[in-house]
């Protein structure tokens, strides 16, 4: 008896679940069949099958323009049946669509949907630092999408180009839902909860989680044969050596580097203002990356040409000493950085391209 009750319950649950899946196809079939019956009953009134579809839709929507109407008794009787059975069906159909839109929006806000775009930036970990990073990215690029990965119940911000994926960033499945292989770059912020609660007890825990995330990213890169630029925040500078076996391209300034800047500000007043200008796009002058031009053979050629255009060449990758080797040949794979304003970089890029 209990087994029979369980089977009946399973059948009922299955039918309820099936109803949700077949309702929309059934509603569309109902409209098409009703239109066919109406056209068969009164072919002279409805001229074509498309016209009868139009009439059924306007009737069920209770719009009733009056441009077409049945004239025979059978046609009128069919119309009455259509009113009784169809109007309720359309109401359910519209409700179903509204509910579907609501569920999609709920899944999106709750971080349960997969991001399917590309050339986006992934921010791992929500904090005031990631909030500032979002604002900075939006100022720098008006078209790029941002995907946040965290374990919050819902998206921490609501922006048109901001998407949220809820989950553990050390889990490859979570990273794949953020479409990591198609991303432009990833920024890993130190876990705020771990930092607030455990950093003083065991500093390795904060950077340890960052290392696990970087390991998961490296694993996906190897499996998908992709190369993604990864920037990581490391709280303790001595822990950077732990990242040697994973692919992290750059590290966000550590506590020691910030302390160094603070000390230098005492001996060289205004140095922190200079750092702020270089690190933020809200100032007129900031740092940009440019490509090597064919007419530049040496760093001196590039330096003088850029200076005449209103820009200053400051580095090749991490080498800040190019002013001491101006006559050296610029390698083909050089990564040049300059300081200038937005108008100047726009002019330089337009000439390069």
Automatic annotation (TrEMBL):
User: Has keyword Ribosomal protein?
Assistant: no
Classification via Pfam families:
Ion_trans_2, TrkA_N
Give the way it sits in the membrane: Multi-pass membrane protein
| Alphabetized UniProt keyword annotations | Membrane, Transmembrane, Transmembrane helix
Q: Enumerate the transmembrane spans.
A: 21-41, 80-104
User: GO cellular component annotations, sorted alphabetically?
Assistant: plasma membrane
Q: Which SUPFAM superfamilies match?
A: NAD(P)-binding Rossmann-fold domains, Voltage-gated potassium channels
* Subcellular location as annotated: Cell membrane
Q: Provide the RCK N-terminal domain boundaries.
A: 118-253
- Protein name (record): Ion channel
Lineage, highest ranks first: Bacteria, Bacillati, Bacillota, Bacilli, Bacillales
């Amino acid at each position: 008896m209990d087994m029979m009750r369980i089977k009946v319950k399973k059948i009922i649950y299955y039918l309820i679940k099936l109803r949700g899946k077949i309702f929309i196809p059934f509603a569309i079939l109902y409209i098409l069949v009703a239109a066919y019956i109406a056209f068969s009953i009164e072919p002279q009134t409805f001229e074509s099958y498309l016209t009868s579809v139009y009439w059924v839709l306007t009737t069920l929507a209770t719009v009733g323009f009056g441009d077409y109407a049945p004239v025979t008794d059978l046609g009128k009787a069919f119309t009455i049946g259509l009113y009784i059975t169809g109007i309720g069906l359309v109401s359910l159909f519209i409700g179903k669509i509204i509910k579907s839109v609501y569920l999609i929006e709920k899944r999106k806000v709750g971080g349960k949907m997969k991001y399917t775009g590309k050339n986006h930036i992934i921010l791992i970990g929500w904090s005031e630092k990631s909030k500032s990073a979002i604002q900075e990215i939006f100022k720098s690029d008006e078209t790029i999408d941002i995907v946040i990965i965290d374990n919050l119940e819902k998206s921490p911000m609501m922006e048109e180009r901001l998407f949220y994926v809820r989950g553990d960033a050390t889990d490859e499945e979570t990273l794949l839902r953020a479409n990591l292989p198609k991303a432009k770059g990833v920024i890993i912020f130190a876990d705020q909860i771990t930092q607030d609660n455990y950093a003083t007890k065991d500093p390795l825990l904060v950077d340890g989680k960052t290392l696990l995330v970087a390991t998961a990213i490296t694993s996906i890169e190897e499996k998908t044969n992709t190369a993604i630029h990864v920037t990581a925040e490391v709280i303790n500078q001595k822990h950077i050596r732990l990242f040697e076996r994973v692919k992290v391209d750059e590290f966000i300034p550590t506590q020691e580097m910030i302390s160094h800047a603070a000390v230098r500000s005492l001996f060289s007043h205004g140095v922190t203002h200079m750092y702020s200008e270089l690190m933020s796009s809200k100032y007129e002058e900031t740092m940009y990356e440019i490509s090597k031009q064919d007419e530049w053979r040496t760093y001196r050629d590039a330096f003088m040409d850029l200076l005449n255009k209103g820009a200053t060449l400051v580095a090749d990758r991490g080498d800040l000493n190019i002013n001491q080797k101006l006559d050296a040949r610029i390698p083909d794979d050089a990564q040049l950085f300059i300081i200038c304003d937005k108008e100047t970089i726009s002019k330089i890029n337009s000439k390069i391209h």
